[in-house]
């Protein structure tokens, strides 16, 4: 995927703040510091458009990034960060649930998991939530450069088993450092967008 244009658009908290141009949206969920911002930057080939931070819990809204006037990446607040208050966690949960239940332009959810570790309880809950709402999901296993190549398959298998992953959901091993998995993930995203278009044309 050649990126000709990418920019940050808005930080939204409630539906009336979401963009209204009906471009397809690809949302990213994952625990704090799992590498969502770094993934976005690698996907759009920009170093610091999505601001990365060593401080977990920094993203507190739905951050919209518009790419090639074709698609939005929507970055969710990270979950599972202990220093975020209980009230904030509840607010994040309500904000994300509202988005997932009501957002028609959402075409694909990326569930971002650190490939070095088994999914957390929060990861399992989020995956179950996505399946409950019938949202197309891709599991992205980040930081693949941090584990030996000989152990990639083992780690991916462990992640799929812990999530009880649907065999139909694509799994992409990804590294923001090396770019591994970028082309594969763009293929998954474009397939999700084109599949939606085909479904709409068939129903007309």
UniProtKB/TrEMBL annotation:
Q: Does the UniProt entry include the keyword Metal-binding?
A: yes
Cleavable signal peptide: none
Which keywords label this protein?
A: Cell cycle, Cell division, GTP-binding, Magnesium, Metal-binding, Nucleotide-binding, Septation
Q: Which cofactor does it need?
A: Mg(2+)
| Gene3D superfamilies associated with the record | P-loop containing nucleotide triphosphate hydrolases (3.40.50.300)
Specify the EngB-type G domain's residue ranges: 22-195
**Pfam families in UniProt:** MMR_HSR1
Q: Which SUPFAM superfamilies match?
A: P-loop containing nucleoside triphosphate hydrolases (SSF52540)
Entry keyword annotation includes Manganese? no
Q: Which PROSITE patterns match?
A: G_ENGB
Family from the record? Belongs to the TRAFAC class TrmE-Era-EngA-EngB-Septin-like GTPase superfamily. EngB GTPase family.
Q: Which PANTHER family match?
A: ENGB-TYPE G DOMAIN-CONTAINING PROTEIN, MSS1/TRME-RELATED GTP-BINDING PROTEIN
The protein's job, in short, is: Necessary for normal cell division and for the maintenance of normal septation.
Protein's recorded name: Probable GTP-binding protein EngB
Q: Which species?
A: Paenibacillus thailandensis
Give the gene symbol: yihA
């Amino acid at each position: 995927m050649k990126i000709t244009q990418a920019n940050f658009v808005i930080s939204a908290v409630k539906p009336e703040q979401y963009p209204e141009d009906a471009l397809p949206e690809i949302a990213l969920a994952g625990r704090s510091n799992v590498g969502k911002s770094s993934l976005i930057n690698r996907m759009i080939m920009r170093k610091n458009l999505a601001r990365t931070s060593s401080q977990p819990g920094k993203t507190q809204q739905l951050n919209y990034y518009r790419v090639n006037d074709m698609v939005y990446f929507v970055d969710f607040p990270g979950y599972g960060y202990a220093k975020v208050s209980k009230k904030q966690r509840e607010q994040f949960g309500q904000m994300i649930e509202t988005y997932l239940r009501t957002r028609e332009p959402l075409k694909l959810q990326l569930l971002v998991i650190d490939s070095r570790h088994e999914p957390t309880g929060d990861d399992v809950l989020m995956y179950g939530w996505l399946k409950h709402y019938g949202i197309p999901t891709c599991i992205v296993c980040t930081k693949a450069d941090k584990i030996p190549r000989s152990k990639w398959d083992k780690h991916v298998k462990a992640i799929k088993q812990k999530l009880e992953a649907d065999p139909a959901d694509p799994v992409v091993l990804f590294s923001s450092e090396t770019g591994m998995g970028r082309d594969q993930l763009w293929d998954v995203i474009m397939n999700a967008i084109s599949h939606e278009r085909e479904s709409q044309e068939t129903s007309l």
